[in-house]
Amino acid sequence: MAKPVIGILTWREGHSFKEPGYFRSLVREGQKLGATVFIFSHKDAFPDKKQVRGYIPNGNGGWTSRIFPWPDVVIDRCRTAQEGYSEFRKQKHFVYANHTFTNKMSATRLFSNEEALKKWIPATVDYNAENLVRMFKKHQIVYIKPGNGTGGKSIVKISRVKGGYRLLGRTKGYAKRNILFRNLASLTIWLNQWVRQERIRKGSFMIQQGLDLDLLPGHVSDMRLLIQKNDKGKWEVTGEGMRIGGVNNPTSNLHGGGRASSTEAVLHKRFTPEKTREIIAECHDLAHGVVTVIEKHFGRMLEYGLDIGIDKQGSVWLIEVNPKPGRELFKKMGRIDLYQQSIRRPLQYALYLNEQEQKQKQEKKQELKLELKLELKQHQQHQQHQQHQQHQQQEEEQEK
To answer: What is the DSSP letter of 117?
Structure first.
């Protein structure tokens, strides 16, 4: 029996990929699971020939390309939309393990309208001067963030303080901003320029209710939780950990200088062991609720990374969801077991999905065989009936 073939769809420039270490791990893990795994971009697929130019690691730290058969299942890991990608994705050439998602602003609106989730969603509105005034009337802290950003880029945190408004931010290139504005008018002028400069592709910005997440004094922290489909096709939380931002950083992102810690180590500094267990359990409930809603609206999915805020009172808040999450947090926590499991699970789910697809094909074949048998039997019965009628007619004519 031929090995299952799994393709990883991603962004490629020449022989370079944006997540080379992760992709090498996927190919190696796929081999252990008895599958052929390769990396490709939408430009590498040849639908007419049912072939793909795929890339696999070579022994020199680079990549070798060769022609592979049409994959049984494709995992979409494309985090940068190249020209032609969206059109290619709409053509549904493959069995995809994960459907396309939406931007952060649309996702937040969706979650806010779901009865099962709305209690966990911070107030969020589109960025404009009028909404900024309204949000500051209700909240001491607000965040301005892009609706399609990643890695904590282009985000500012603004706090009402004595003497005006304190802004902490990071540009696309992770350059820090720390400015005190005396009034809202000067802040708005600066922000209008910021959203123009920091705009990512054609995306817009949003204003989100700020949360008091300084569980450790002077450091913003939040939880990154990874929930994935397992080898039985069921959602399961792979693990979670805390990201702790540097001093005067608006976010806790690891790319922006944050550090990783176990969830218990951070929460135990502020809450009792019992309260800590309750908070973690609530975060797991939130994760399962989120993926249930997403699949209801967008179809089959594979994995999600949730950024979850836990404020000083122990309340849980959904900050954002990422359909193509990183997993370096587990490495930085020293949890190599969780890191390896986080790589294995997408492949296990792809293999499960292929198995289900093959079963469905076999069932359809069996159904077709049964239908043909039934048609043949009905045809034979019809012929027998006609022969019987002819025989009766001949006997009646002979009697006359």
So the answer is: T
| Residue in the structure block whose two tokens are 């920091």 | 198
Q: What Å distances lie between residue 309 and 5, 69, 283, CA to CA?
A: 39, 44, 10
Whole-prediction pTM: 0.84
> What is the C-alpha separation between 125 and 105, in angstroms, rounded?
8
DSSP string, 212-272: ---SBTTB-EEEEEEEEE-TTS-EEEEEEEEEEPPTT-S---GGGT-EEE-HHHHHTTTS-
Angle at 330 between CA 326 and CA 58, to 5 degrees: 65
Q: From the DSSP assignment, how many helices (H) and strands (E) are in the chain?
A: 9, 17
For residue range 258-296, what is the model confidence (pLDDT) as tens digits? 789 999 999 999 999 999 999 999 999 999 999 999 999
Length of the chain: 400
pLDDT interval class at 219 (50, 70, 90)? confident
Kindly list the strands in the beta sheet with 124-126, ordered across the sheet, starting from the edge strand earlier in the chain. Answer: 124-126, 205-209, 141-146, 155-161, 164-170, 176-181
pLDDT in tens, 231-248: 999 999 999 999 998 766
Strand partners, 239: 226
The rounded distance, in Å, linking the Cα atoms of 310 and 45 is 44
Beta-carbon contacts of 204 under 8 Å, excluding residues fewer than 6 positions away, are 105, 126, 127, 146, 147
